[in-house]
């Protein structure tokens, strides 16, 4: 039973991280209908930035709380800046181009960013500093769920809540919903669509950065390649839930996280990534619109 | 050429990039020794580099926007690019083809074995590029797992040779057909999906194949790979290493000629026109009575077939394969070849393959930056020249008003 609960929590933690990344995919897709391949790389850059800042601060002897806050902030700020810039350089000039063009451009961006970090930093796995201490009150259940795991779940829940409030009640949230429904119409009623798109990229990137920092703290090591697999998995989660739908992304992520945790726990850990990809292939075959997605009719 | 305002903007952009690249470019930490390196000189490089790049970017963008609308009309009438002109005039074209062929035939006798070996790699990528060109360029299906079919070809020869001692010439068609079968098996369920989903599924498929090859040790000997695969036989005569390489070189030349011939004929066939129609608009294409799924499947499996063939040649050439040769980067390189050269353009793909494969070989200093450049090439080509270096010549029909 303990093993089951342990796997359950491990699945939920994974799912929470996937959700933070998947939201970026789903929001961008909802607004401009583009799979932002470079999103996994943004997550990686978030993890790297927080790693660098946290290590520097810890070497200079800052207190732990300050390190956590500053590293998190730096990760979010720089990732958002990257997201914003990527959109301006690689996607904005291609708004009117055929569908294949922005997709190829996105893949190019992803390869570029991976190698940029590889060349500017290193290709080795780097140990991530311990950011979240083992809480005393977690002692009795520490063998089932770690303090980091619990922190991930709580932080994700708070972030989701804030995001929902933002989309539901603020002006920019309203503008985002309008743009995702009909871009031309949104423009006609005076919404600055370019600004909305930029904001979407910034928010999505910020979320991915937080996810990146949390998972790096959880796993304890990073390298330049973590964004690739995480990106595909988060995309799988987004598709599973119905791409374009925010609650769908969260649901899909949790399902994917649990599937992976149980499959690796009970079947085999060698094929961890194969489970995720197979799940993706199956969803796409049987329900391409996802669990909460809407069926799309296409016209000439 | 540039107004003051523009220069100011470029300065702002370069400041922005300095900020953007600050943590990754400037700071480097050593977590084991607990040391921090501040690489301030990188900041200067970024500032100067991004300033000039943004100037160029701005200039190109302006040219694109200014020229875009009118060029469309004017281009087709008089301003056909010089390369297209050469390709369209039979006299020049035939001279070009003959001279390239002549150079290709004497190449291994003039240059060293090492050079010939590099040339074989380039030729292999030409065929891979032409195969992917069918899928991406003609049919408009973005396949990011192309390397999986390449792996299927290579492993089918390696395993057949290992277990049944089957020779190169029998394995060649088997590898091709197995890859084509994989293409159909993968294509059948996913081809009704839209393009971007297809991209991800093929990407996932490519990774699955690699992961299975890596983890299923009893089947594929895992990460250590399969070694001592036989080189292609020459009528039962044992060849020395040098002559074996020259032999493979000529095989590749023949393979390329066949590929070009087939792709060229396919392009103008009923099937090829159906692919192009499918690429342009799926629904309109279906309305014209084209069986969408069948057409896509054929494109997919034909592309896979070429990849399988090259896979067999690859296994025979290196005599050793392991899963590390079949990563996503490989797919990305092949895709870059097609995109850089020009989607749908045979000459473009050939030129693209030579540039992308030979340049890093001869500029060893730059090979570190190879993947960085590939990424940048994909983005830049899409933004500034989506049709590629040598654009595909579209079939045009002109009505002559002769009284």
Features:
heterodimer, A: 300 residues, mainly alpha, ABC transporter involved in vitamin B12 uptake, BtuC, two-stranded antiparallel ribbon, 11 helices, B: 403 residues, 2 domains, 16 helices, 2 strands, 74% helix, 2% strand
Could you give a short description of this structure?
With 300 residues, chain A is mainly α. Chain A has helices at 2-32, 39-59, 64-91, 100-120, 147-169, 171-181, 183-188, 193-219, 226-241, 246-266, 272-286; strands at 126-127, 221-222. Chain A has a two-stranded antiparallel sheet with strand order 1-2.
Number of domains of chain A: 1
Mean pLDDT of chain B: 82
Order of helices and strands of chain B: HEEHHHHHHHHHHHHHHH
- Give the overall silhouette of chain B: globular
Q: What percentage of the residues of chain A does DSSP assign to strands (E)?
A: under 5%
| CATH architecture descriptor of chain A | Orthogonal Bundle
Largest interface, per-chain counts?
Answer: A-B, 69 and 66 residues
What does this structure look like?
The complex is a heterodimer of chains A (300) and B (403). Chain A is an all-alpha fold. Chain A has one domain (2-286): ABC transporter involved in vitamin B12 uptake, BtuC. Helix content of chain A is 73%, strand content 1%. In chain A, strands 1-2 form a two-stranded antiparallel ribbon. Chain A is globular. The termini of chain B are far apart. Chain B has helices spanning 4-26, 40-77, 82-88, 90-110, 113-138, 146-164, 168-190, 195-215, 217-220, 241-268, 270-280, 282-287, 292-318, 328-341, 346-362, 370-384; strands spanning 27-30, 35-38. Chain B is mostly helical and 403 residues long. Chain B has a two-stranded antiparallel ribbon with strand order 1-2. In chain B, helix 5 (113-138) packs parallel to helix 10 (241-268). The interface between A and B is large, with 69 and 66 residues.
């Amino acid at each position: 039973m303990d093993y089951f609960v342990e796997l359950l929590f491990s699945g939920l933690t994974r799912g929470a991280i996937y959700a933070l990344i998947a939201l970026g995919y789903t929001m961008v897709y909802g607004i401009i209908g583009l799979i932002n391949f470079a999103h996994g790389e943004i997550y990686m850059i978030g993890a790297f930035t927080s790693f660098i800042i946290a290590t520097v601060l810890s070497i200079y002897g800052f207190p732990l709380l300050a390190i956590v806050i500053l590293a998190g902030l730096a990760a979010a700020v720089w990732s958002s800046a990257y997201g914003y810039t990527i959109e301006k350089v690689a996607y904005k000039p291609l708004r009117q181009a055929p569908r294949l063009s922005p997709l190829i451009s996105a893949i190019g961006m992803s390869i570029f960013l991976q190698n940029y970090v590889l060349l500017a930093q290193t290709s080795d796995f780097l140990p991530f500093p311990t950011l979240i201490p083992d809480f005393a009150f977690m002692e009795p259940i520490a063998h089932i769920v770690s303090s980091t795991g619990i922190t991930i779940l709580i932080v994700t829940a708070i972030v989701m809540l804030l995001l929902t409030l933002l989309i539901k009640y603020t002006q920019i949230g309203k503008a985002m919903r309008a743009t995702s429904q009909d871009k031309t119409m949104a423009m006609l009623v005076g919404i600055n669509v370019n600004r909305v798109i930029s904001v979407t990229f910034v928010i999505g990137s910020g979320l991915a950065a937080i996810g990146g920092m949390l998972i790096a703290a959880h796993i304890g090591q990073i390298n330049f390649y973590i964004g690739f697999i995480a990106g595909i998995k988060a995309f799988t989660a987004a598709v599973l839930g119905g791409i374009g739908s925010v609650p769908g992304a969260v649901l899909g992520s949790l399902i994917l996280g649990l599937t992976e945790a149980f499959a690796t726990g009970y079947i085999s850990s060698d094929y961890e990534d194969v489970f995720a990809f197979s799940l993706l292939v199956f969803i796409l075959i049987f329900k391409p619109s996802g669990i909460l997605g809407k069926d799309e009719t296409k016209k000439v | 050429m540039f107004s003051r305002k523009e220069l100011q903007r470029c300065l702002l952009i370069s400041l922005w990039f300095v900020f953007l690249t600050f943590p990754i470019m400037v700071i480097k930490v050593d977590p084991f020794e607990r040391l921090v390196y501040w690489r301030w000189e990188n900041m200067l490089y970024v500032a100067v580099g991004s300033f000039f790049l943004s100037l160029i970017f701005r200039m190109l963008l302006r040219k694109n926007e200014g020229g875009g609308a009118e060029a469309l009309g004017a281009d087709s009438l008089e301003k056909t690019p010089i390369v297209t002109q050469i390709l369209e005039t039979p006299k020049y074209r035939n001279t070009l083809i003959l001279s390239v062929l002549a150079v290709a035939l004497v190449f291994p006798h003039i240059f060293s074995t090492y050079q010939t070996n590099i040339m074989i790699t380039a030729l292999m990528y030409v065929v891979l590029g032409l195969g992917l060109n069918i899928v991406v360029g003609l049919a408009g299906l973005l396949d990011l797992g192309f390397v999986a079919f390449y792996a299927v070809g290579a492993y089918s020869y390696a395993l057949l040779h290992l277990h049944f001692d089957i020779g190169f010439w029998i394995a060649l068609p088997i590898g091709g057909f197995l890859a084509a079968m994989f293409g159909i098996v993968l294509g059948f369920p996913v081809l009704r999906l839209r393009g971007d989903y297809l991209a991800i599924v093929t990407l996932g498929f490519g990774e699955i194949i690699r992961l299975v090859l890596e983890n299923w040790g009893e089947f594929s000997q895992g990460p250590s790979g399969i070694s001592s695969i036989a080189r292609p036989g020459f009528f039962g005569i044992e060849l020395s290493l040098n002559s074996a390489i020259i032999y493979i070189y000529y095989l590749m030349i023949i393979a390329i000629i066949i590929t070009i011939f087939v792709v060229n004929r396919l392009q103008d066939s009923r099937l090829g026109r159906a692919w192009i129609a499918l690429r342009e608009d799926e629904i309109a294409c279906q309305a014209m009575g084209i069986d969408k799924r069948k057409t896509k499947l054929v494109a997919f499996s034909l592309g896979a077939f070429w990849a399988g063939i090259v896979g067999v040649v690859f296994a025979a050439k290196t005599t050793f394969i392991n899963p590390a040769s079949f990563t996503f980067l490989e797919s990305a390189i092949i895709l870059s070849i097609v995109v850089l050269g020009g989607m749908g353009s045979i000459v473009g793909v050939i030129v693209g393959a030579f540039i992308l494969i030979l340049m890093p070989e001869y500029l060893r200093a730059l090979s570190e930056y190879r993947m960085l450049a590939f990424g940048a090439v994909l983005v830049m080509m899409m933004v500034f020249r989506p049709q590629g270096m040598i654009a595909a010549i579209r079939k045009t029909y002109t009505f002559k008003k002769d009284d």
